[in-house]
Structure formats: C-alpha cells, structure tokens
Amino acid sequence: MVPSTMYMPEHGFCRQVRSDALATVCLLIGLLLCQEALGEGITPGLGRIPSAAELANVSTHIYADGSGLPAGSGDGLQGEKIYASRCASCHGGAGQGGSAMELVGDRALLATEFPDRGIAVYWPYAPALFEYINRSMPPDKPYSFSASELYSVIAHLLELNGLIEPGQRVDAAVLTALQMPNKDNFRSGYVEPE
Amino acid sequence: MNKKNTSRRYSRRKFIQHGAGGVAGALVTGSALGADSASGEAPASWKVPGRGFSNYGQPRDARNSPIRWISADRSIAGNGVSWTPLHQLEGMITPNGLHFERHHNGVPEIDPATWKLTVFGQVEKALVFDLNALHRYPMTSRIAFIECGGNSNSMWRPQPAQAPAGYLHGLLSCSEWTGVPLSLLLREAGLKPDAKWLVADGLDASGVTVSVPISKVMDDTIVALYQNGEPVRPENGFPARLLVPGWEGIVNVKWLNSLQLSDRPLMSRFDTVSYTDLQKDGKAERFTFEMGIKSLITSPSPGQSLPAPGFYELSGLAWTGNGVVTRVEVSADGGKTWSQARLQEPVLDKALTRFRAPWHWNGARAILKSRAYDALGQVQPEREVLLRAKGGNQYYHYNAIISWSVDTDGSVHHVYA
Asked: How confident is chain A (194 residues) per 10-residue block, as mean pLDDT?
C-alpha cells in the first residue's frame, strides 16, 4: 500500500494524457500539423505570471552597488547591545576569539602568511553584510532582525573594524559609499568560454 | 494473440507455483531428495522460506553498512558536512543515502504542495512554476558528480591527516540527476540582453545565494527533480536543486527558491568571502567554479589492511569539471614509474570514472599514487607543484596527487610523498 503522505509526482500520467490528446489532433487535422505539434519548437508554457505582491515577496537581493538595501538606519551604540545579546556567544566579545568566523582581524593585507580574514580585509563590499546577516544570522533565529537592528549591528562591526567613525549612523547610503580597504585585491577567476 | 498471452501467463504462474519442485526433480537425482539426505551439504537457506518483501529496501546489516561521517558545528547542528564513504563503495554511482551533505544551517522542511520557483529580473516576463508544472516539462538525465569546493581541504595542512579516504575526499558524490533543462524555463521567461548572470537562492535557513554566469546556465544547467531515479532527497535539495555540471558544489543550489536574472553578479557572501581562493600574491580569486582534474585510489586506502603479499586490484575514482577523464596512471613506487590503469565504461563527461589496475604486492613498503589526465592533456599535479603555484593560504580546490603508503605489515596510511 502506498502511504498517503507519499509524494507522487504526476509526471508520467500527465504526459500520457497529453500525447493522447495530440494523437487525436493528428487524426483530425492531418499529418502536417501533427509533425509541427510534435516538433522541437513546442514548449509547455506552464509558468504562471506572478502578481506584483508576489514578486515583491521574492528574495530581495542586495548588490555590491547597494541596490536592494532597505530604508532604515542604526548606530554602533545600539548595535553593540544587539551584538552582545545575539552575536557575541559565537563571535566573541569584540568580533574575535569565538567559535565562529572572526569578524575583526589583523588589518594586514592578504599577502602575509596566514592572514586574518576579518571584515576589513576579506569582505570586498559592505552591502553584502546586510543580506548575509539578514538571511543567515543568528543561526538559531535567522531572518529575525529588523532593518534598523541590522544597520545597527553592521555599524558596530564597522566600528570594531575601524571602517567608520565611532557614533556614525549607518544606512543604505553609507553602506553604498563605503570603500572596503582590500576591495582591489579581489579578482574574478572566471573566464567566459569562447 | 490474446489467447496466446493468457496461456503463457498461466503457464508462468503454474511454473512459479510448482516450478521449484520441478527444477529440483530435474537436477537432483534419487537419494539427494528429501530430509533424510540433507545432512549439512546443502546451504541452510535452501531449507527455510526467506523473508518477505519490503516497501523500501535497506542495507543487509544496517549497523555495519557504509555510513556518512558527520562533522558539524557543536552549537549549530545543521552547519557542517557529512562525507560519502568513498573507501567503502564501488562503481561510479553514489547511493542516495550516502550522497555527501554540506549545509549551512540544516535541511529545511518544504511542502511540495505549496513550493514554487520564481524566475524574475532581466526577463521579458517573470514566471512562477509550481512542482506539478515542473514535472510536466520535458526532462533530461545526466550522470554527474558534485564536489564541494572545499573537498580535500585537510590536504592543505602541512601534515597528512589520517582518516579513511572518504572522510578526507568524500565531499564528492555522483548520481544520475533528472530534471528540466534550466534553459527551457528561461527561454519561456525570455532573457533580456542584459541577463548575464543568474542569482539563485535556496530555502534553507542560511539563505545560500550564489551568482552563476548565464553561459553556463544556458549550456547544461538542470533544475534537478530526481536523483538516481527517485525524488531528490531532502538533504540533497528536495523538491528541486540546481545541477551545474562540473562546477563547485555551492553553485548547485539546493531547495531552490528563486532565480533572478541580472546584468552583474550579486557579490553575495558566498560569491566573495567564502568559496574564494587566496593566492600567494595576496589576491583573492572568486568565481573559481570549475573543479580540477583529480583522482584517488579508494582500494586499498587508509584504514584498510592487506592480509598478505600477493595480488590486489587497485581501484579508484577520477574526475574533472572540464570534461572526460582520458587517462589514469598508477604508481606503486611513489611516482618513479607509472603504468596505465583501465578506465571502466562508461566514461562520462563530468562524472566519476572508475579506474582499475592489477597489482602484485611483494610485501615491501609501497607508495601508491594515481594521476588523471583530461582531454586537454592537463594532468593532476604533484602536491609540491600545486603548493608552489598556489601558496599555503588555500582552503578550496585541492586537486594534487594523493599518496597512500602500504607498510610491511599491510597497513595503509596517508602520506605526502
């Protein structure tokens, strides 16, 4: 017996119905059209046009140029409190020494042996911090920060990394304008095929 | 015609009902029949009815069957990996329950009835596909490996890690993947001229998001719905994942959520910070998608032991992200001399290839190596050649020649040699 919860795609069944229908069409309107209807050119066209509301709910990606960053702002003072309660247990008190990836490291650039990979040297674009922390952190409750909380946490991290002045508010414009110091030492290893 | 079929069916059934006795009668004569003479000569299983049927087959002895080893974050159970036990498997296909896993925050539970895949961005019209719709699309199958970009990363360490081969190199699996060519869905949506990159994201609790060049997407990328004939396993991306043949595992996004067409890559954390290779000149290379030419001997391999000198078959796997493996050579003297291994058919593009070579072990210490070649004549490098070229700050894309020592007591160890 098939358990009722078992997922049964109807792929084979639907294909059968479709080819039966096509056979009927062939008989009715002749061989020429039949060949066309069975040709490589036909396409299922079973995608549905999403509503505007539906599209607005699809993943909003935040590009390196800052597009996609939401409204809101925050500062390091607020961010430090959030960091202490939500981040420090894995990332350490000041972004170092925890079980998780270091957030603050030696600012030595990457040519030294075993360089740290903190935010200042290993994140070439600041806006990516927003999307990543938003989607992934904290692991026990991802996707739970508000935009202002996120800007605050990022402000704290940028302060710890010496990338903004203490107390500076962070918003979309600040993240977009921020030039990460080691950006030019990242390059693409991908070559388009001929 | 009908009558003939019926009678054939009848006689088959009759054979099933009565055949066993008939066969025994035909093959065994006189005194061998019956309980009197069955004094331990016959296999015990001839004398008792076997076990019944099962809805879903299981390995014979679950406690001693090959398993994935798990290496996960202590505080985040779903962040880590599990390894395919390559050293305990044969052939080229990975059983579904043993396909490697790399999750950033666990395996999401997804209801297939409400799941949908959204295609949007630089397209003529955004489209949403539900699962039943996708299952009605023309499908294609291909046997392909998936290898994590960080597979074999312990090999970058200065000392050779001692573990069974699968737990050093088993972020690598090979399956028959079946699904809808992504190009078909994108043609229906209509690519705008600016659609140069695909940004794909998953439904996992880490929101894995990667950028893939459109040329690869349109060339051979599949929205995979089936894995070795059955629906893709939850831990491998149910209900749908990307298969990007030959490219590092991270871009083969599991639990697909949306596909955004874009004029540029996203530069997500997964594009730039992780899966990025720090070169010895201090430059970090991102978008190092293709997995390099590579091979390893799975038998014999560390943890196994050769009971005595004599004949052994060297058996291993070779693969490359740029096409087919054209040649594998093996050495039993640490690379002083090489001989060509036999490539077992089928030898497929971007799939694991099984190679075999007969070997007579004379009982002296031996160093076993394998090296693979691709269709461009590129050969798997020696370890020091790779280290010289890449420096020591690497984590991903280790593809140097792998060496095992067979010691005089028959034990096998991992060595740098």
From this structure: 39 41 48 57 92 91 97 98 97 92 82 80 95 96 97 98 96 98 92 81
The three state secondary structure string of A103-166 is CCCCCCCCCCCCCCCCHHHHCCCCHHHHHHHHHHCCCCCCCCCCHHHHHHHHHHHHHHCCCCCC
Instruction: Count CB-CB contacts under 10 A for residue B24.
Output: 12
Segment 38-97 of chain A within 8 Å of chain B by CB? 43-50, 54-55, 58-59, 61-64, 90
Task: Write out the residue limits of the CATH 3.90.420.10 domain(s) in chain B.
Answer: 69-285
A116 touches chain B (CB under 8 A): no
3-state secondary structure B78-120: CCEEEECCHHHCCCCCCCHHHCCEEECCCCCCCCCCCCEEEEE
Q: Is B220 touching A (CB cutoff 8 A)?
A: no
C-alpha distance from B405 to closest chain A C-alpha (Å):
30
Name residues whose C-beta falls within 8 Å of residue B412's C-beta, 6 or more positions apart in sequence: B300, B301, B302, B303, B304, B305, B306, B404, B405, B406
CB A35 within 8 A of CB A112: no
- Give the tokens for residue B151: 């597979």
Cα separation, A119 vs A178, in Å, equals 13
B266: DSSP letter: -
Domain(s) of CATH 1.10.760.10: residues in chain A: 73-185
Using the Cα atoms of residue B177, residue B181, residue B182 and residue B185 in order, give the sign of their dihedral: negative
A11, A109, A143 ranked by CB distance to B136: nearest: A11
**Superfamily classification of domain B69-285:** Oxidoreductase, molybdopterin-binding domain (3.90.420.10)
Dihedral over Cα of A89, A93, A96, A102: its sign: positive
Class of domain B294-415: mainly beta
ipTM exceeding the 0.95 mark:
no
Helices (H), B283-412: 383-390
For B329-340, what is each residue's pLDDT tens digit? 999 999 999 999
CATH code of the region A73-185: 1.10.760.10
Task: Give backbone dihedrals phi and psi of B339, rounded to 5 degrees, phi first.
Answer: -135, 155
